[in-house]
Each structure stands twice: as structure tokens, then as C-alpha cells.
Fold this protein.
Amino acid sequence: MIRAGLVGLGKMGISHCAILNAHPNVELVAVCDSAQYVLGVLNKYTGVRTYGDFRRMIDEVALDCVVVATPSRTHADVVQYALERDLDVFCEKPFVLDPLDGERLVELARGRGRVTQVGYHYRFVGAFREARRLLEAGALGRVHHLRAEAYGPVVLRPRGSTWRSARAEGGGCLYDYASHAIDLVNFLVGPPIAVSGATLAKVFSRDVEDEVYATLRFGDGSSGQLAANWSDESYRRMTTRVSVWGTNGRINVDRQECQISLRERVDGLPDLGPGWTVRYTTELTAPVGYYLRGEEYSAQIDHFVQAVAQRRTEHPYSFACALETDRVVQMILRDAESARAAPAAPPAGRPARRRGLLDSIRRVLSH
Amino acid sequence: MDRVLFGDNQFFGINHMSDEKARAQAMRFQDTRAILEVLEAAYEEGVRVFMCTTHERVADVCDHFRSNAARFPGFEFYPCMPYAHKYADAVTEHGVLEALRQFLPADGALGALMRGGLSAAKKDIDGIARLLIDAEMKMFAGLRTPVIFLQNVVSDLLLGLGFKDAFRVFADHVRLKYDAEPGFITMNLPLMVETLREVGLENPIICSNINRIGFRMCGGIAAYEALLRENRFRAIAMSVFASGAIPPRDAIEYVCGLPGVQSIVFGASSRANIRETRRLIRACWGDAAVPAVVGSSRQAGAGPA
């Protein structure tokens, strides 16, 4: 039995609370949040120990691991405190806001032999796992372009008062939505080495961006485009989609299905013929012991629990992998800032084209 | 309880297999008249129950059936609450308390909760639950709602959290205030059966995925079949076609062949599919369970979606 503590009882925290509690190998022994009323309700119905201060919870309760689901800005502090007390840590996405914190925490965890994981749950969706399997098997030949998209209805009017609407707290479409699409890019083809043309734009929000667009460059010369918009009411819920083009065909993948179009058969993939093959979630989804909102949420916690039990510190969902996503997020932020800092019109007497070229060179060199 | 129930996923852009299909359906049914046309066709084909979420657009459907009650004798609604997206979106945008404030009719209970912190939470949470149920039930005023369901997002969350008493609170309130049977939708049938037994709810109505390929049947298809054989709850099978992954005849024959399945809920977008699905069920369960429709002369077309 693994003894778990949970910090943060927002939407994801409550969901983790149920999933942990239902897991046969986990004993959820304590929860922590700043909202007394939520703690009161949980304590009344479940008898779980409740805390208002995560340090006290970690100090007073004998735990094997903690699940961190606090607002993003606070992740680094909570994670560090837990790692320093030799606890294994599952942290909600995005991992941390500053990659320097991330590097420090990855090293800290490594030094102490801790099991870590970040809640990029799309990595546990059957269709995306199938796409990764096919790409690893070389189904598409040489990949030359991809498009990663995330759309949904989060901010639909000019209001909002939670941490998600504050940039310093880790709010905004980039951290909340685009990070999922970026993480899927990393999961499917590996992280890009450079970002250009980053656009962070407001649609309704006052303090944060509602849409994110950027061009991604990969080490092998291939390119990608990222598009995220959380102010799109035409979607019933968050929808994340990746399209990948290669010399032997194309894959379109979302939560529900994986569509594959191949020019020619590929060795090692005898079940894929030329033309279209469509695989649906109904055949790609592995069963879970407890279901809430999607198999992937339970599957990721189950993976963490097994990794803790088996002391598996290296796996494709670790802090180190999430840090790669944080780094791309930072590249996008820097590129967008440098674009904003550049003057809109060229100073008098200088030809516009030359200035633009210099800027581009400088930007490329800075990556 | 009717043996053949009509569901509403297809009307609100929900398809477990394809986002493209879901969007095509959302386009087709964006005008409530398109929903009403299918519901009227379902009625003519012998369907008497619309099992629907408390989606805000269902309020328009309710208005139609209220205003035209004489045209649809015997028609019943089985409300499934809450339509969770509106709560989840509100919690994401505003936090738990502000979201509650938006959905509660009066903020007396909520005010006490905020001021009193922990102790008030213990006292008032049942009251808040009742107020939320009443808010969800408003749109069905004057309509027949003999069974009222707790949606799976909430019931499965409660199961996971171990809020066992909440099922009793829900059951007591819908019995007392609405003279209705409580029903529970779940993706975790074995856990639900065990939990409801623990809180003393006898022979409950439980709606869960039951399909030949075991899609979203948590705990495993064997455990589901064993529970159905015990026959200690009234089972409604949903997702019998697994969003189209199973051919219609195979799907229906499997579910109808299981002991203990009381009803099947299915969604369809056309008269032909409704007729065909009902015909397949009747072929398995017989005329007594699924009466023949008198006076319907239009021809059925393709199989179920």
C-alpha cells in the first residue's frame, strides 16, 4: 500500500482525490487546501486528515508520495519541499513556470532517487499512444512537418477572477492549453530546437493571452506549427489534435481516433495497408480499474503508483520530460517578447528590409 | 420502467468515437426543431421515454412537450443531472464558491457555508445538494419524470471520493419531492452496486455501459456479467453499440441475451435507425416487452448509427 498526500483541491485536485482513493494500492491519508469549506466536506464524508498548510501535512503525516495540484506558480515550492523530504511526486501540468526551477528540481529528484511524474494526461490517451507507436516504427518515412492544435471554450467573455486569468500565477492559454499540444509534439517526435513567429494575443482576457501561434523548428530540419485558442465556443470541450506529414504519408490524431494514410506498406507494420486506416478509441483504449472523465486520468495515476512501487525513476512522463515542454513554452514567451520589443516601424534613414534581416539573424543566433 | 429508452448524446455533439461525427451532429441539431422532429418520430415508432441530460437546450424540448401534451400521451422524461460541463466550466472560470453562487437559487445556505467554514460545511452540504437538484429539475415542471438519474461524472466522482451518503441524500430527495425513483449512471458498475448496497438502497436502477467488447466497463466484462446474473439491481444498458464499433445485430443480441438487463437506452438521429433498433430489440425480447407499433407505415432504411 502506498501512502499518498494531495495538495490542492481545485478541479484537477478533486479528480485526483477520487482516482487515488479508488486505487487498490493507494491509501490517501491526507489532503491539503486553503479552502476550509472543501476540507470540511471531505473530512465529513471520508474521514481523511485535512491540512491548510502543505509543509505541516508533509511533516506530520507519514507519506510515500504527494500529488501536487495547486496553481502552477506554487508547483516549484511544493515539489521542492516534498523532494527534500524524500517523497515521490506527481505534479500537475505545467511542471514549473521557470525552467531554471525545473532543472534544479530534476537534479534534486535524480540525486535523491525519487520517482516523478507530471500530469500531461494526453500521453495516456490510446490514440496518441498509437500515433507514437506508428511514428517510432517509421510508418511515415521521414517526417517533414506537423501541426499541433488545442481549442476549447474556457474564456468566452471579458471576465474571470481565478488564477487562470493571471499571468504571474501561471494562467493563460499558453500554460493551460498550448502546453498540452507542445507536450504531445515532444511525445510524438521530440522537442523542437527553436521557435519563431510566436504570437500571444488577447481575445477577451485582460492580463493573459487567449490564443497562441508559433512556428517550431526541429533538429532534423523539419518544421511544425502550433495553434491554441481557449476562446473558441464552437468546441464543447478541450480538443487537441496533431497532424504529422512524412514522405510515406500522414497521421491525424485526436483523443478519439488515429487516422493513418500511407503511400506504401512499411516493414514491421503488417496491419497497415496503403491508403487510409482509421483506429478508434474503442479499440485503442486499455481498460482502467476506475473511470472518471476519461481512462487517461486513471491510467496516469496508475502508472505513477506502479513506478513508485517498482522504483522506476526514468520513464516518458517524468519531470525531465515535462521540463522539455517548459523549455519550449519559454522559447515561445521569449520569441513573442522580442517581437513585441522590436519597433513597429523602422527608424528614419534605415532601410526596413535590412533591419528585419538583422533582427532575424539575431533571433536565430540567440536560440 | 420502459424496456426501450431514447437517449440524447447525438443531439449535443457527443460521440465517443469521432469528433468529426460529433461536430456533424452538433450542426444538424443546432436548431431545436431538428431535435423535436427526431423525438416525434421516436414517439411514433413506439418510444415513450426520453432519457436526457439537463442541458439548457432540453428546456426548449420540455416546453414543446408541455405545450403539446395532448399529442404525446404517455410520454415521459428521465432527467439525468447535472449537465456537468456547465459546472466544470464555471468552476474553472470562477472557482468553486462563485460557481455554486451562480447555480443556487438563493445564497442563504452558501453565505452560511462561507462564513462558518468547516462546521457550516458539515451542516449545510446536504441542503446545498437538494437546492442544486431542485435547480436542475425546474425545466421539467409539469412533465412526467418517474425516474431521475444522477449523471456518471458526478456519481463516479462521489464513488471515487467515498461520499457514500450522498447517494442516499439524492435518493431520498427525488423520492420525497418528485415522487420519482432514483437512478444512477456509472462507468464503474461493480463499485456502484457495492456502494449502493452499503448505504441500504435496495434493488436500485443503475445505468452503465454494457456492450460486447467491454468498452468503458470498469471492473471488466466478466464482473458485469456476474453482477447481472445476481439480479439484485435494475440494469439499464447504454453504449450497447460502443459508438458504432459493434454491428447493430450483434450488439443487441449480446445485450438482450444477458440476464438482468431491464432496459436499453440508445440514441439515433433518424426514424429509420430508431425503427430498426427497436425492431432488433423486439426480435430478442419479444412483443410483450416491446409492443408492436400500430399505424406506422413508413419504411425503415439503413441500420442504426
